[in-house]
Specification:
Length: about 300
Amino acid sequence: MSVASVIGSIFARPPRALEASLLLEMAAYEALWLQPGASFKSLSDRISATPKERPSDLVDRRTAKDHAKDIVSRLEEAGLKDVGLRLFGTPHYPTKLRDARHPLRAFYFRGDWNLLAWPSVAVVGARELTKQGAARTRRLVGNLVEDGFTIVSGLAAGTDTVAHTTALGMGGRTIAVLGTPIHKVYPRENADLQAQIAERFLVISQVPMLFYESKDWRHNRRFFPERNVTMSALTDASIIVEIGNSNGTYIQSKAALDQGRPLFLLNNCFAKAGITWPQHFARRGAVRVFTYDDIRRKLFERGHTRP
């Protein structure tokens, strides 16, 4: 049975971007993730060394077809009929992602892909957000929405949740970049929020679903900081609201500077006990933020125009 037949037999109307050729490439990519030692770096290096730079160059067609059926089956079980795919080297692959050290070779999305054409800012911070941090996040997002920016965050608890919900509440645009597969939700209490963003705006996941379901949390937790690199590459700038106990804010900050993106660190980040990397990144060009004008000035210097 062909991949197109598999899709047609499951969906009365196939998902708009799950075309047979793209699905086979994604299935091959998922198969590569199941091989020992797989990582975004190793797979990017392996695929870039092939003549056509396609995952299918490294996986036999039968294996790809079998994995394609598994992918479609999992999407069906999750009730998702609107999942799209993006592949490195194809016309719709986002140019900004090429600035990542190891550009993603394939990923899933739900929602309006055209949102990536709008000016956007990543807003990230602690999961165990303080009351002051929550207030800062709401004020910050409010200002960014008024200035016409799309709010990008990771749908995690704390800062991410406040950033997304504030943007929605103000009638702004928001994009979620997941640390879980496209058919999963984490944390569970954000299920409705994830569904709302997917329906009205855009949800992106670079996490291979077959690998994720074959491993436990000790293997899968690495995908959360990895998506910070993607968030930085996809956006025009990153803002760190508050530093928590995880290393996601550090990874996002480093990625932003490495990718040539403006990095803004709210002043409170410099007072976190035992943390010295904000000072280090400030010496590399990160902006220490005392008021929103410190952010607005830099963003508008880069050519953003207020709507």
